[in-house]
């Protein structure tokens, strides 16, 4: 058994100070990922800083009419909040597409942002893995890589980010609010998660002595056109092979705004804002959606077993755009694909 110190932080400042004092310390919120990682001996913290007493459980309006969601609000509370259901149904839909009811009741916003890849080699301490042990190698490159990345990967790591929530947040253009010894800073969701490069052990740009306070969502009109389309091996309790989060605005049949993020395909939620601009001013037609999806997937590179993801992602984007345009999003309440 590995010994570790347990501390229940009484304030945000105490949590930050203890992180700064101990490079092996890790924060515990819902524990739905960290406890698993500890059981597998993948995470070996010297100190667990339990932050469940911190005042980070509020959902409220921001000064500009957006929504602020505290780091410790559970995934279930976010998905069922009236303001999220009415103004950010894409976020509610993505959360409900993930995990199980029990996990959503325990998992938190911050934990979802910080969850680690589900690459099987990462969880198996008997194998090499650059993310777990930098410099040891990446067996997934030439091994079991059916679920791995087709976009933005590197020689060092081809893992994917597992979150559904973060894919919706990328499309919504959320901001992550973090605090460290030097104060508070706001990081766009697009910048928060990293591509692997030569340092796949770093999933995000969060510094070790910083703590996530919450997320902020920009003001959004009520009942936007949206869809979160998640394709997986089974219809519940499975990570995405590919997912697409779409927000659309259409005036007189012409697209005035398109924000599209892909999940299950890269080390972070994947967006191409330059391609999205090409949709603006065009009609919401199958042909235009096809063209957009082809541009989005044009940099994709297949490994030995995941080439199917390129065409699957292309079709998923087109279908999600069609669902958003026709106001027939994939429903998560019964887990059937509509
Ligand atoms: Fe490790 Fe990344 Fe390679 Fe998986 S893909 S074995 S997480 S380095």
What report would you give on this structure?
- With 338 residues, the protein is an alpha+beta fold.
- It has one domain: 2-Layer Sandwich (Uridine Diphospho-n-acetylenolpyruvylglucosamine Reductase, domain 3), CATH 3.30.465.
- Helices cover 30% and strands 19% of the residues.
- The chain contains 13 helices and eleven strands.
- It has helices at residues 12-21, 34-39, 75-79, 82-87, 89-96, 101-106, 109-114, 120-123, 165-172, 189-192, 273-279, 286-297, 308-325, and strands at 5-8, 25-28, 47-50, 59-61, 67-70, 175-180, 183-188, 211-217, 225-231, 242-251, 254-263.
- A five-stranded antiparallel sheet has the order 4-5-8-6-7.
- The longest helix is centred in the C-terminal third of the chain and has 18 residues, at 308-325.
- 45% of the residues are buried.
- The model has no long low-confidence stretch (mean pLDDT 96).
- Bound molecules: iron/sulfur cluster.
- Iron/sulfur cluster (SF4) binds at residues 117, 119, 121-122, 129-131, 138-140, 157-159, 200.
Keyword list:
338 residues, single chain, 13 helices, alpha+beta, Uridine Diphospho-n-acetylenolpyruvylglucosamine Reductase, domain 3, binds iron/sulfur cluster, 5-stranded antiparallel beta sheet, globular, 30% helix, 3-stranded parallel beta sheet
